[in-house]
Structure formats: C-alpha cells, structure tokens
Specification:
Bound molecules: pyridoxal-5'-phosphate
Structural class: alpha/beta
Strand order of the largest sheet: 2-10-9-8-5-3-4
Radius of gyration: 21 Å
Largest sheet: 7 strands, mixed
Number of helices: 10
Strand content: 15-25%
Shape: globular
Number of strands: 14
C-alpha cells in the first residue's frame, strides 16, 4: 500500500507528512555528508547542530526562559514517574499527586516507593471522567512538589488551565498534549513528555527543568538518574536517541511554519469540536466518556450502545482506512487520538463514517 491512511493511534502516533518526507529525503545522506543521521556520532558537529536546533525550536515555541534546561532522556515518560521522586522526594517528605487517569495512577505508585505520596484527588472510583477545579484541592502545607497529568491519554480527560500555586514546585506529565496549545511555562518547575504522542517517535523523553530543581538533586545520585549530571553534559552522559531528537527538530520546524502553538490550539479546538458535536448530536448512540468540562482536545473517548457494536465499529472503520480507533485495552470503547499532526479531513471522514454507522445500527 502506498496511500497514507487516517491514523488515530494514541501513540506512537501519526507524524506530519512533510516531516516524514524530509526525513526520507535525508535518510541516506544527511546534509550531504554521505551518511544517515543514525550512522554518525552523537559527538559530531553534525549532530551538535541537530540537538541545538531542536532545543532552540522548543525554546522558541514553548517560550522557555533561560533558567530552564531542556533534556532529552530515554526510558519513556514512565521512567520519569520514578526519576521525579528519586530526585525530589526524601523518605520523610510529602508529595501531592492529582490523579485523573491511568498515567497519574502509575506515577503516584512509583512515588509511594520513595516517600509519602498523597492523592489530593483521585477520580478512579467514578471512572476517571473528571478534573477537579484547582481551588477545591486541599494542598499539603509541606509538600515538596505537586504532580499532575495535564492530559490523561487513555480516558481522554484534560485540564483546561495551568495549575497556579506559589511556593510549591509544580511537576507535570504533558506527554499527550505538549505543544498542542500555548502554556504558561513559568508556572512549572518540571515538565516531561514522552515524544511519541505529539512531538516525535518513541524512545525519547523531553524534560524541561528549572535550575533551582537541578540544585535540589541529592549528591551521590546514580549518574543516569541524576538530572543535574544529565543537564551538565547536555543530555549526552551516554548516547542519546539521536534519531528521535532529529525528528523532534523537524517537528518543531513544522510547527514554526504552521504558525506556532496558538495556531495549533485553534486547529485542535476546531478538530475536537467537530468530533464532540457528532457525539452530542447522535441522540445518545455515541456517549462521550469524559465530563464535558474535562474533555480532551487530543484523545476523544466515547462508547456505543454495546461492546459488540464497539468492536464492529472499530473493525469497519479500519477497513475504511480509519485506523487505531479501538479504545485502550483497560477501558474499552472507542478512542480517536487527534494530535497536532492529525489532519482535519480525517476527523471529517470519521464523522461521516459515524453518521453512516449510526443510521444502520441506531
Ligand atoms: C503514553 C504516556 C505515558 C507513558 O509513556 P512511555 O513513553 O510509554 O513511558 C505517560 N504519561 C502519559 C500522559 C502518556 O500519554
């Protein structure tokens, strides 16, 4: 098959076509050097220019001030669940966690191995459909940090604003909505994101960390778990994911060309609205999973009247080149992931399919 199809995968997810084409055109000879970017030293001047450009792109798109360092790690966002408490939580310290979905649940579990991890909010019993308002939370007075997940990828639950607290460092897992809209970066002490949802391929994790947090890393930390050591060596303590960083650089250039994160937010709102409108106007045939005020712009989750229909829906959609719509194995249902790179025409095509499917089965 040479035609591209509409890929609703939650991650690894679709990348911009022009990024893939650029990578393809440079695959055998990067910048005319006669070698692929995958085949050259991470300590070469060629790769230096790639990692510098990727950092510059991220800095400019996200408006990252100079007192924050940009790191490219491995181990996925999942390793950050451990690295955060290992670096910032002592056995007798408390950290506050806001648990709005499966990823936040995994994060607090790792923190509890290290110190006192308090769930300020946990909506698991009601099916992870909601986000709290920031004001209703009872923050610990002595927390060393507050952790939350800005977009819960599996349930399709997203916070609509940045947490704004003074004093306590805010740490956020932004894996599935980073760069989907502008954020107020200075409200955060640490942001991390696995690249494979919105900014690149799997195997590279972006960490944006404020200098005062680097200063808090305990002495005698295991080297590869030590943010300060990694920052000092510019993410090159060991061999980084050179290919992944290269693709992130290309994605940043694509985003700049598109007009940056404000434009992305406009497009993402537009795409999500089309899909949620189709759900809401289906006379209850399609039922959105998340509460309306917590609906994700990135992962649109919904159910059909029965599991049998959901299975049929996903299978028929796949046959019509609408792939990856089956919900996460832990929750079932349907999930349409519509990250930055996912085109509006794909959303419109899905809505057409949904209308036809409902006419037959509704
Ligand atoms: C995908 C995802 C993760 C896990 O990412 P890995 O890179 O597979 O470790 C963590 N948090 C969120 C919000 C995610 O979407």
């Amino acid at each position: 098959m040479s035609e591209r199809i509409y890929n609703f995968s939650a991650g690894p997810a679709c990348l911009p076509l022009s990024v893939l084409q650029k990578a393809q055109s440079e695959l055998l000879s990067f910048n005319g050097i006669g070698m692929s970017i995958m085949e050259i030293s991470h300590r070469s001047s060629h790769f230096d220019s790639v990692i510098d450009s990727a950092k510059q792109g991220l800095r400019s798109l996200l408006d990252i001030p100079e007192n924050y360092q940009i790191l490219f790690l491995q181990g996925g966002a999942s390793l950050q669940f451990s690295m955060i408490p290992i670096n910032f939580l002592k056995p007798d310290n408390t950290a506050d966690y806001i648990v709005t979905g499966a990823w936040g649940k995994k994060a607090i579990k790792e923190a509890a191995r290290v110190g006192n991890a308090v769930a300020l909010y946990n909506s698991e019993d009601s099916g992870f459909k909601s986000t709290p308002s920031w004001e209703e939370l009872d923050y610990s007075s002595n927390a060393t940090y507050i952790h939350y997940t800005s977009n819960e990828t599996i349930e399709g639950v997203e916070f609509k604003s940045d947490l704004d607290v003074t004093g306590t460092p805010v740490i956020c897992d932004m894996s599935s909505n980073i760069m989907s809209k502008p954020i107020d970066l200075e409200k955060y002490a640490v942001i991390y994101a696995g690249a494979q949802k919105n900014i690149g391929p799997s195997g590279v994790t972006l960490v944006i960390i404020r200098d005062d947090m680097l200063a808090k890393v305990p002495e005698n930390q295991h080297t590869l778990l030590d943010y300060r050591a990694i920052a000092k060596k510019d993410s090159m303590l060991n061999t980084p994911n050179t290919w992944g960083i290269y693709i992130i650089d290309l994605v940043c250039k694509w985003l700049e060309e598109k007009g940056g994160l404000k434009e992305m937010e406009r497009e993402n709102k537009d795409k999500a609205q089309i899909l949620y409108d189709a759900i809401d106007s289906s006379d209850g045939f399609y039922r959105g999973h998340a509460d309306r005020n917590a609906r994700s712009l990135m992962n649109v989750t919904f159910n059909l009247p029965s599991e049998v229909l959901e299975k049929q829906f996903a299978e028929e959609a796949t046959a019509q080149s609408l792939d990856g719509l089956k919900g996460h194995r832990s929750v079932g249902g349907i999930r349409a992931s519509i990250y930055n790179a996912f085109p509006k025409e794909g959303v419109e095509t899905l809505v057409g399919f949904m209308d036809r499917f409902r006419e037959i089965h509704g």
